[in-house]
Amino acid sequence: MNFTLIALLSCCLLLICLPSYAAEKSANSQNIKGPYSDFDTEQFELERKEMVKYQIRDRGIREQLVLAAMLQVPRHLFVNSPWRDFAYSDRPLPIGHQQTISQPYIVAYMSAAAKISPESKVLEIGTGCGYQTAILGEIAQQVYSIEIIPQLAQRARQTIDQLGYENIKIKIGDGYEGWAEYAPYDAIIVTAAPEKIPQALIDQLATGGKMVIPVGIWHQEIIVLTKTVGRIIKKKTIPVRFVPMRSKLPK
Ligand code: SAH
Fold first, then answer.
1. pLDDT tops 80 at residue 28
2. Cβ contacts of 148 within 8 Å, gap of 6 or more
3. How far apart are CA 238 and CA 157, in angstroms?
4. Which residue's CA is minimally distant from atom 14 of ligand 1?
């Protein structure tokens, strides 16, 4: 057999084998476990486990329901490329319209501070990409979320529907007014920072409920507000940097 013939035969063999190798590789990278198997991969699942361990658990968040929710929700589906590969990194990321998805630790921190149980009815202000919404949807019985930028609300709704959450309602509107129709809420989580706590949100919080809200302009802190009979208790917690809560719908 001469050299040309050997080279030709090797090429043919490579062409036959490559497609089946690629198909096998892509089948392996699809994680078949879990309800999100169509969208998840082993690589993202691994990064999610590490995120929960190093960024959340090791920093002191031990609420099992929160940790389980953060392990479950495919954060990479809530951000667009080119950011998708950084979805599990320890930072906020752009989601368009000058807004950001919060850092994983902050999402976990707020969810834990709100003391949400499987019976809770929760209001979220600032849906953004819908990631925190999905985390709340994993833990609570029912979640209502308000977003002021229509395009973000629509995209979040799409992602949430794609993942099959039936206990989440999203509306386009102004969070300063809350969502009176379904009040009172056992917990309210606000993910944009107002200058002071909106009165409508305090009114819509159930007695015994908790609101977790970043407050301030330059210097912001997360305040955990507890409503008891005839009393509002406000506790300042960690310093943060959130986008400002707008007081008007964008034109
Ligand atoms: N939890 C979101 C955070 C998004 S950033 C996420 O992880 O993706 C804060 C969001 O609050 C932005 O999407 C912004 O448009 C929204 N927002 C700002 N002011 C608002 C208001 N008055 N009512 C409702 N949403 C508001």
1. no
2. 126, 172, 173, 174, 175, 246, 249, 250
3. 30
4. 126
pLDDT in tens, 42-83: 999 999 999 999 999 999 999 999 999 999 999 999 999 889
Q: Hey, is 223 helix, strand or coil? A: strand
120 given a catalytic annotation: no
Q: How close is the Cα of 106 to the center of ligand 1, in Å?
A: 14
- DSSP bridge partners of 220: 240
For 64, 67, 78, 169, the CA distances from 56, given in Å and listed in that order, are 11, 8, 19, 27
Q: For 221-245, how does the pLDDT look when each residue is reduced to its tens digit (9 = 90+)?
A: 999 999 999 899 999 999 999 999 9
Q: H or E element: which one contains 147? A: strand 142-147
4: pLDDT strictly greater than 90: no
Pocket flag, ligand 1, residue 145 (CB < 6 Å): no
- Which of 243, 247, 248, 251 maximizes ligand 1 atoms within 8 Å of its Cβ, making it the mutation to test the pocket? 243
Identify the active-site residue in 20, 81, 102, 145: 102
Burial level of 201, CB count in 10 A (0-12/13-18/19+)?
buried
- Indicate the pLDDT class of residue 91, thresholds 50, 70 and 90: very high
Distance 27 CA to ligand 1 centre (A): 37
What contacts 125, CB < 8 A, 6 or more positions away? Answer: 145, 146, 175, 178, 188, 189, 190, 191, 192, 201, 245
Nearest C-alpha neighbor of 222 from the set 201, 241, 198: 241
Which ranges in the chain belong to alpha helices (H)?
3-29, 42-50, 64-72, 104-113, 131-139, 150-162, 199-203
